[in-house]
Design a protein that fits this description.
The protein is mainly beta. Helices cover 9% and strands 28% of the residues. It contains three helices and 13 strands. It has helices at residues 98-104, 107-112, 115-119; strands at residues 5-7, 13-18, 39-43, 73-75, 80-86, 121-126, 131-137, 149-150, 155-158, 170-175, 185-186, 188-190, 200-203. A hairpin with a 4-residue loop joins strand 6 and strand 7. The radius of gyration is 16 Å and the shape is globular.
């Protein structure tokens, strides 16, 4: 395995770690689209909770706006240049309980439509050591353009629920080139370490490199 690409956290506040490569590789159960070392962060409240689970949560989809981090700023985790953006995808309802099972059954169809269908609204940043993908952004929230240079902590867009997403979160992965269909996955760390599933990361600042 190559030396991990070290990143800053692409957010401030408290975020719950899911699908971490600290727990298993490939982290998302597949190596398709260079996702072997990808990681997900779910925004949570100050006490580390996502939207309260109600009886309705188990039987029907829920509006993305009900979740505490929907619309939180997503920040550049590296200094680099914007090499791709994709916006305009709808933020669909969140799926927990029985709806999450039904939603999972449609994942193969989304995968067959290609990486963009899985990633939803996203940004690619070409840094010194890798191309970074930040996915599932909120519809019409992307604030950067192709060719724009960004610094660590610059706002890219907002946390959303577009693409292959069961609730608002940000998906982060590193690739060895900008052609996602042919790229190889690269391992990543955040400020020198890799959080595990269930950890709640508290990023307090947007410190520059």
């Amino acid at each position: 395995m190559s030396t991990p690409v070290d990143l800053s956290y692409p957010f401030a506040g408290r975020w719950l770690v899911r699908n971490s490569p600290a727990n298993r590789i490939p982290s998302h159960g597949t190596r398709l689209f260079a996702t072997a070392y990808a990681i997900d962060f779910v925004p949570v409240t100050e006490v580390g909770r996502t939207a309260p689970i109600t009886l309705g949560s188990f039987v029907k989809p829920e509006p993305a706006e009900r979740f505490p981090g929907f619309g939180r700023p997503i920040l550049a985790p590296v200094h680099g240049v914007i090499v791709a953006t994709h916006d305009g995808e709808l933020d669909h309802h969140a799926h927990r309980g029985l709806p999450s099972i039904r939603y999972a059954l449609t994942q193969q169809r989304r995968a067959g439509a290609g990486w963009a269908a899985l990633a939803g609204n996203h940004v690619l940043i070409e840094g010194r050591d890798a191309v970074l993908a930040l996915c599932h952004l909120r519809q019409d929230s992307i604030m950067v353009r192709l060719g724009q240079e960004v610094q660590v902590g610059d706002e890219l867009g907002s946390c959303g629920n577009s693409g292959n997403s069961t609730e608002p979160h940000v998906h982060v992965q590193a690739l060895d080139n900008r052609d996602v269909d042919r790229a190889q996955a690269l391992p990543i760390t955040f400020n020198g370490s890799l959080p595990a599933n269930g950890d709640v990361v508290h990023a307090q600042t947007r410190a520059a490199e």
